[in-house]
Amino acid sequence: MTVHDVLAEEEVPEGGFAVVQVEGREIGIFRIGGNFYALHNYCPHQGAPMCAGRVSGTTSPSGVYEYEYGREGEILRCPWHGWEFDIRTGKSLFSDRTRIRTYKLSVGGGRIGVVLGEH
Ligand code: FES
């Protein structure tokens, strides 16, 4: 297991993200509700750079003629074909089996590190 120090916490604003390079991988680090999440900057569909997509919410199941929008700031939408993913888990909203690779982070002392070599 190796921790790669990449950013200061303050470099990732609440509701925002930063893209870092670690051992040839491009990783997006997001901040939601004061917590940090790391996603591979690569869509599992056709490889779009996910961090070029929009952070938004999504519609939830609702009745006919009803429109329920929620989870603002928790969903990342692929810039190419619009697949939606939960930033916290990397899972797509349509299947547990389709997901963006996530990475463990080490956060402390005002710094963020990406943990590699741990499964
Ligand atoms: S490349 Fe991401 S949805 Fe198609």
Instruction: Say what the CATH topology is.
Output: Rieske Iron-sulfur Protein
CATH class assignment: Mainly Beta
- Helix and strand string, N-terminal first? EEEEEEEEE
| End-to-end Cα distance | 9 Å
| Whole-number tally of structural domains | 1
**What fraction, in percent, of the residue positions are helical?**
under 10%
Tell me the radius of gyration.
15 Å
Explain how this protein is built.
The chain has strands spanning 2-8, 17-22, 25-32, 35-40, 54-60, 68-77, 84-86, 102-108, 111-116. With 119 residues, it is mostly beta strands. The protein has one domain: 3-layer Sandwich (Rieske Iron-sulfur Protein). A hairpin with a 2-residue loop joins strand 8 and strand 9 (111-116). FE2/S2 (inorganic) cluster binds next to loops.
Strand and helix map with partners:
Blueprint (H helix, E strand, L loop, with lengths): L1 E7 L8 E6 L2 E8 L2 E6 L13 E7 L7 E10 L6 E3 L15 E7 L2 E6 L3
Task: Offer a concise description of the structure.
The protein has 119 residues and is mainly β. It contains no helices and nine strands.
